[in-house]
Amino acid sequence: MDNERRIVLTGFMGVGKSTIARHLASILQTGKIDLDSVIEAREKQTIAEIIKTLGMARFRQIETENLRKILAENHAQILALGGGAWTIAENRRLIKTQNCTTIWLESSFEHCWRNIKSSKRERPLAANKTLTQKLFDERQNFYCLADWHFIVKPDLTSYEIAKKIAEEVFLIKFD
Ligand code: S3P
After folding, report:
1. Atom of ligand 1 nearest to the CA of 13
2. Using a 6 Å CB cutoff, which residues line ligand 1?
3. What percentage of the chain has pLDDT greater than the value 70?
4. pLDDT tens digits for 54-87?
5. pTM, whole model, 2 decimals?
6. Residue nearest to atom 3 of ligand 1 (CA)
């Protein structure tokens, strides 16, 4: 694995993409960028506000525009996506044409749901447990298209998962 290669983290809401991205960037001493944070900073609204005011379809357009811009202009090595970004064919195409390595942070629905519920972040797509579970089930078919799959077990910390990724993907040895 080329140590300069860009890593894209995907996975369901609440799996811990942003935190794992932060730890991985710190372990690798490299830059990281979070697609949703870039969108919020550029649009000067939270993702929840964008979805509420402009609608889901427009949010997806904004997401793709920002992903395209980041891939073309930003050189941070670790990119954390929002949970729906990888499910959009155009986004997967953009990521693949940039020769990135994609990692699916895979976890049980219950683990994601617990994190969603304990987080202060408003997630319009996770308002109701039954519908969120349905979304989770439907998305497995897309997430599994990622190059690597890492199981996020509830007993592992985000740092431990980032360490596993560094060991297995970047072949970094820890004492
Ligand atoms: C979404 C996930 C969110 C955010 C938006 C849509 C989704 O990101 O991009 O609310 O479709 O799963 P997180 O996965 O960081 O919560």
Report:
1. 14
2. 13, 17, 36, 47, 82-84, 123-125
3. 98
4. 999 999 999 999 999 999 999 999 999 999 999 9
5. 0.96
6. 82
